[in-house]
Amino acid sequence: MIKRVLSGIRATGRLHLGNYLGAVKGMLELQNDPGYETLFMVADIHTITTPFNIDELRKNRREVITDYLAAGLNPEKSIIFLQSEVSEHIELAFYFSSVTTIARMQHLPTYKDKVKQHPGHNTMALLNYPVLMAADILIYKASLVPVGIDQEPHLEVTREIARKMNQQYGTDFPEPVRFATKGEYIPSLKGEGKMSKSVEGSYINMTDDLDTIKIKLSKVPTDSGKEGGPIPKIGGVRSLYELYKLFAPEKFDEDFTKPYESGLIRYQSLKNHLAEITYKELKPIQEKRKKLETDIAFVDNVIKEGAEKARTIASKTVNEVRQKMGLL
Asked: Got the DSSP string for 37-57?
């Protein structure tokens, strides 16, 4: 039986290395497996749950679609669309909010973190973020979601909503699980937290050239390299370790682990090599992106057709829910 998959990235700017390794590579893996039907969206409605610039949002929605295509997402294999083009997501989220308590939303650690980041923007939209995410997933009855481990609390909310809707109204929503990718958590270049577009200096853009990547990696904080012992669990050394393991898995024991443990690691040469292998993977994506930037009609058509295909599935689910809830 073919399983349906949905994933999305917020429209807060062009994709960075963390998005690529943590989400897009997982999307590509699933897209190319005939056992899955894949839908990938740009979560532009989710973007307005935190402070945003209107002009930047308009631009960024298209930028992410272009990045998706440049990285290898294929509109002939996957449905690629803008969340806001399928208004059924909003309608289903409201129906779901009728089985979701305010207390449950307020206790989510992700909600508390966002309130700390934006204390003047504690809105209903922010509180309802996980309910909209549940609607995004369940409107397509997706059973797999390739997202980072930090999204697991939201997926648990999705499963709870699915159970409640099935029990109260006799719907047939699946309880989706996270599809873990090899790069499910990409650490910040600052040595604290994960790569994030909201933290300057923490990430490598997918559009960065080799010199820029070298400069960014050169700033990753490290020790003297003479301490030896086990690899630290946190900090800049750990960030380099995780990135090297993803880009050079066959050499990383020889190049990183053994030299570090013996106190003989040379960070400058290691950082330069990491920059080179990172750029080698990004270069063909960058070249494809340049071509897409000039093919406006193609990108427009991907957005239009993706919305039409997504809406066909979404409207059917919403009508089912209306019927079950007595609204039809």
From this structure: EEEEEEEHHHHTTS---HHHH
Q: Which amino acid, 109?
A: P
**Rounded distance between C-alpha atoms, residue 299 and residue 293, angstroms:** 8
- Tell me the fold of 3-185+296-324: Rossmann fold (3.40.50)
Dist. CA 63–CA 107, nearest whole Å? 34
**Which pLDDT tens digit goes with each residue over 228-270?**
888 888 899 999 999 999 888 888 889 899 988 999 999 999 9
Cβ partners under 8 Å of residue 178, min gap 6: 144, 145, 146, 147, 149, 151, 152, 155
Alpha helices in 141-229 (DSSP H): 152-169, 210-218
pLDDT digit string (tens) for 48-76? 999 999 999 999 999 999 999 999 999 99
Closest CA to 189 of 16, 12, 14: 16
Say how many C-beta atoms besides its own lie within 10 A of residue 35's C-beta: 9
Total-model pTM: 0.90
What phi, psi does 99 have (nearest 5°)?
Answer: -115, 15
> Which CATH class, in words, describes the domain spanning 210-290?
mainly alpha
What do you get for the CA distance between the two ends of the chain, in Å? 31
Tokens of 48: 């307005």
Distance CA 256, CA 275 (A): 14
Give the sheet arrangement for strand 78-82, strand by strand.
78-82, 36-43, 3-10, 144-145, 177-178
Domain boundaries, the chain: 3-185+296-324, 210-290
In contact, 88 and 317? CB cutoff 8 Å: yes
